[in-house]
Amino acid sequence: MSSLAGRWSFVALVTSIACIGPLVGFIWWATSPGVQGVYFAEGIFPSETEPAGYIDADALFAIGTAIVGCLVALLVRRRLTLTSTGLVLAALTLGGIAGSAIAVLTAYAFTSPERPKIAYGSIAEVPLTLGAAGWLLVWPIACVGTWFVADLWSSES
Questions:
Q1: Burial 16-38 (b: 16+ CB within 10 A, else e)
Q2: Can you give the pTM of this predicted structure?
Q3: pLDDT tens sequence across 73-87
Q4: Which residues, 6 or more positions from 72, have their beta carbon under 8 angstroms from its beta carbon?
Q5: d(CA 70, CA 56)
Q6: Which of 4, 16, 32, 128 could be stapled to 111 by a disulfide with Cβ–Cβ 3.0 to 4.6 Å?
């Protein structure tokens, strides 16, 4: 396999994985519980002090990206014939990070506005947010971890 073909396979794999991000983001937005808040001049503040809605949203993102990461890794392990293991692992990592970032940005695009056109003191839904940037690493970790397990499982002793 020529070096140029290997690079194009790498770019195609990263791009293909990242293109799953909008679907994951839309599903995350559609399934996340809404947190009600009160609209003030400074923004929307949650009307309840319990963080259950935020924790549920983060958990849904983590579970969704972990499932997608595992499925992508199994598909890549089964179908891809890149000769370099390092290229495959790098593509899974970069594609997972890009897919997670695109998923979050897609969900943010669908979420309620930060400044809705309603009167101050009205009840509004708090915009969807990801609690910690570390959740973006769930997808690539699931990809690489699943790929390693599948590689160990299928390797001949």
A1: ebbebbbebbebbbeebeebebe
A2: 0.85
A3: 999 888 776 668 888
A4: 17, 20, 92, 95, 96, 143
A5: 21
A6: 128
